[in-house]
Amino acid sequence: MDLTQERVLVTGGAGFLGSHVVELLRAQSAREVVIVRSSEHDLVDRQAVGRLIRDVKPSSIVHLAARVGGIGANQQNPGSYFHDNLLMGVNVLDEARAARIGKVVLAGTICSYPKHTPVPFREHELWNGYPEETSAPYGVAKKALFVMADAYRRQYGLNTVCLMPVNLYGPRDNFDLESSHVIPAMIRKFLEARAAGRNEVVLWGNGTPTREFLYVEDCARAIVLATARYDGEEPVNVGTGSECRIADLLALIAELTGFRGSIAWDSSMPNGQPRRCLDVSRAAEHFGFRAAIELRDGLGRTIEWMRAERRNAKGAPTT
Description:
Blueprint: E1 7-11, H1 16-27, E2 32-36, H2 46-56, E3 60-63, H3 71-76, H4 78-99, E4 103-107, H5 136-156, E5 160-165, E6 167-169, H6 182-196, E7 200-204, E8 210-211, E9 213-215, H7 216-229, E10 236-238, E11 244-245, H8 246-257, E12 262-266, H9 281-287, H10 295-312
Parallel strand pairs: 1-2, 1-3, 3-4, 4-5, 5-10, 6-9, 7-12
Antiparallel strand pairs: 8-11
Helix pairs in contact: 1-7, 2-4, 4-5, 6-8, 6-10, 8-10
C-alpha cells in the first residue's frame, strides 16, 4: 500500500495509542488522516458508524477505539468492556464490508491469549484456551473480532489485518489510578509518595508475575508498517520479545523516579496472568517490525512526560 495515496480513518485517533499512530501516518505523508473521537461518533451505534464511513469515504481504516483499563477497571466493568468492544468492532467491520473499504487494521490485545499459554506466546496458541479471568470479557471480545475478520475475508474478500500488541506504556498514557495499567499507576504512586514525603507505596499482588512492555511509539510504528506492508490472514504479535518481573519493574521505576521508600504488597488483590512474553518473529518477517526503545529508556521518557504534566497542572508539586 502506498500511504501517500490513502485516506485513512483512525478510530480512537485522539487516544493514547491512536494519537501516536495519527502523528506517524501524517509524518509519512498519508494523503489524508481522519480522526474519530468518541465524543463525536459513538461506534457502538451501528447507524453512526455507517454515516461516518459514508461521510469520510476512507480507503482504509485503522480501528484502535476501545474501552480499556487495568485489572481493577476490568473487574469493575466486565459487561461494558465486553459489550462495547465487541459492538464497536462488529460495526466497523460490517460497515467497512458494506462500503467496500480496501483494508481494515484491527488492534487486538494480548489479554486474548489463554491464561497458561506457553512462553513465548505464539500466535497459534491464541485458540487453545480461555483467557485469564480478570480480563477475559475484554480479551474474548477482541478475539471474537478476529474470528469475524477472518470470516469476512473468506466470504466477502474484506482485507482485514489483526494485530496483538503487548502491554503499552509511554507519554499520554492514562495515569488515573482507578483505570490505569501497571506502569502509569506505579509512576504516579512513586512520584506522589516522593512529593508527599511518604516512605511506603502499596501495590497489588505479590510482584511475581511477568509482563512484556512496548513503548507506545514503537507500537505506532508497527501499526503503520502493517497498514502499508501486511495483508496476511494470520494474527500478528506486536511486542519486544522480552519479559520483566513486576518486582523488577517496580525497582526500576523507583530508581528512575527517585523513590527510596519501601513497597507493601497487597496480596489480597489479583496478580492477573502469571506470565506474558511474545514470540515476535512473525512481525519481523512479514512487515519488518522490531522494537527499538529499551524499557529503561522508555520509562525515563514516560516519567519526564509525567513530571512535565504535573508541573503544568495548577498547584502540582514539581518533585
